[in-house]
UniProtKB/TrEMBL annotation:
<dbReference type="GO" id="GO:0005524">
    <property type="term" value="F:ATP binding"/>
</dbReference>
<dbReference type="GO" id="GO:0061631">
    <property type="term" value="F:ubiquitin conjugating enzyme activity"/>
</dbReference>
<keyword id="KW-0472">Membrane</keyword>
<feature type="domain" description="UBC core">
    <location>
        <begin position="8"/>
        <end position="158"/>
    </location>
</feature>
<feature type="region of interest" description="Disordered">
    <location>
        <begin position="178"/>
        <end position="197"/>
    </location>
</feature>
<feature type="transmembrane region" description="Helical">
    <location>
        <begin position="214"/>
        <end position="231"/>
    </location>
</feature>
<keyword id="KW-0808">Transferase</keyword>
<dbReference type="Pfam" id="PF00179">
    <property type="entry name" value="UQ_con"/>
</dbReference>
<keyword id="KW-0812">Transmembrane</keyword>
<keyword id="KW-0833">Ubl conjugation pathway</keyword>
<protein>
    <recommendedName>
        <fullName>Ubiquitin-conjugating enzyme E2 J2</fullName>
        <ecNumber>2.3.2.23</ecNumber>
    </recommendedName>
</protein>
<keyword id="KW-0067">ATP-binding</keyword>
<keyword id="KW-1133">Transmembrane helix</keyword>
<dbReference type="InterPro" id="IPR000608">
    <property type="entry name" value="UBC"/>
</dbReference>
<keyword id="KW-0547">Nucleotide-binding</keyword>
<dbReference type="InterPro" id="IPR016135">
    <property type="entry name" value="UBQ-conjugating_enzyme/RWD"/>
</dbReference>
<dbReference type="InterPro" id="IPR050113">
    <property type="entry name" value="Ub_conjugating_enzyme"/>
</dbReference>
């Protein structure tokens, strides 16, 4: 028979889940494992105005049986440039600081604190120092990383569907870009290829870079727009 503290943790987490569904945390969705309510998985949707925009960041919260009297462990799974992956994070709301933990704090409080710390640059155990460009590159790669994670796909099927659509769109754009470059190559005159080879190669490289960057920016904007509506739909469920 489970002890009293285990029952308390289960009951409290069930209450927190109901509250979270009614009043979601901005830019974050979260679900417990169906087989274990003490392990929750979350996805941070890269906030606008940050280098994380367009990215999806999957992580997990592992609650002790003594919750809410003891804090959870917090992990980030998706490479992000801010936190080390699959490493316990040292935050004031995590089990690294039981002395600062408040039993009145809920799952929503924890997720809000995590997001706040993610968009800051304050160093801590488990954090990383990377440039905004590196973070943007990881944001772009995060979709493909997450779609290969079975737990992400199982717990967040709506997000997974939109990720697959976005990756398919990217593949189509890349195919169109290659066709444009192929047409450009075929239209080059032999004199240009012979006398101005270096300039032509440089021009094609610049064209590829400019178009690729444009596709990425347009893709990020479109994907972020779609995700907003997914989250809005989750709020009304």
């Amino acid at each position: 028979m489970p002890n009293g503290k285990s029952i308390t943790a289960t009951s409290r987490l069930q209450q927190d889940y109901v509250r979270l569904k009614k009043d979601p945390v901005p830019y974050i969705v979260a679900e417990p494992l169906p087989s274990n309510i003490c392990e929750w998985h979350y996805v941070v949707l890269g906030p606008e105005g940050t280098p994380y925009v367009g990215g999806l960041y999957h992580g997990k919260l592992v609650f002790p049986r003594q919750f809410p009297f003891k804090p959870p462990s917090i992990y980030m799974i998706t490479p992000n440039g801010r936190f080390k992956t699959n490493t316990r994070l040292c935050l004031s709301i995590s089990d690294y600081h039981p002395d600062t933990w408040n039993p009145a704090w809920s799952v929503s409080t924890i997720l809000t604190g995590l997001l706040s710390f993610m968009v800051e640059n304050t160093p801590t155990l488990g954090s990383l120092e990377t440039s905004d460009i590196e973070k943007q590159q990881l944001a772009h790669k995060s979709l493909e990383f997450n779609i290969n994670d079975s737990i992400f796909c199982e717990l967040f099927p709506d997000l997974a569907t939109n990720v697959r659509a976005e990756l398919s769109r990217r593949a189509e754009l890349e195919h169109e870009l290659r066709n444009v470059e192929g047409d450009s190559d075929r239209n080059d005159t032999s004199s240009t290829l012979t006398d101005n080879h270096n300039g032509a190669v440089g021009g094609q490289s610049a064209l590829h870079s400019a178009m690729s960057n444009l596709f990425v920016l347009v893709g990020f904007a479109a994907f972020a727009y779609i995700v907003k509506y997914v989250v809005k739909g989750l709020k009304t469920e």
